[in-house]
């Protein structure tokens, strides 16, 4: 059979000649393409309830030299999506103590942060800070793990910006789109996306460009689908052995960006002092906190409130 046919095409061409067991395997693959791509030969054989030898013969019946070549063809197109799964599989095959896993994870985070620092683009940093401080409104978007990072970015910027809104809320992508409908050319959208990229993030960036807004992307590199959409891009190396990305590196980039904005903002010390003063009643251990709490009225439980109301009515009745 010619090389280059898709798995589905190979199965369709071979189906009339397949044995009942091989046909059952073919049906499983067609119904579970992604899952089959993640399976070793023993896992695939167990899922379809055949022997490993039968799984190998099935691969050869489709025109492959064996199961490894069959799986390689299955994986094609899923490479980026499956990469974290394959890294996790490889790591789990090596025995390690919990302390060793801790140490390896921290070493990865440090190496990622150092690589990000070395490759930072000074011009992009200057432009990013200037765009944030010049924007009338700043919108922050991200989904999946990037949604949590978007919230931290909003938290870090809001003291120094006119208005910062995270559109990564409970309403999902459609709610984010409703927020961005108000986007003006004087506004800035900051989008966060790392492999595995969420389609909604890319779509929102495209819509923001159509509305004339500026786009600042925090992503992993020039090959990111966000890169061609961004007016400004800041890149972070975020590889991780046990998960899709290292959020620690992205958070470090976010903290660096917020620090640079604070350094360039007008009267940052005054803003920080005023915000801290406002927050004193909520800060544990500060002199202002306890008196503020003591002076606050105690909430009345619902049952006590009802009893008090009945007593008041009864007293008024007796007086009248």
TrEMBL record:
Keywords: DNA-binding, Glycolysis, Transcription, Transcription regulation. One of its GO terms (molecular function) is DNA-binding transcription factor activity. Residues 128-267 form the SIS domain. One of its GO terms (biological process) is glycolytic process. Residues 308-320 have a biased composition (Basic residues). Pfam families: HTH_6 (PF01418), SIS (PF01380). Residues 288-320 are annotated as: Disordered. Residues 5-81 form the HTH rpiR-type domain. The keyword Transcription regulation applies. It comes from the Bacteria. CDD domains: SIS_RpiR. PANTHER family: GLUCOKINASE. This is DNA-binding MurR/RpiR family transcriptional regulator. It comes from Cupriavidus alkaliphilus.
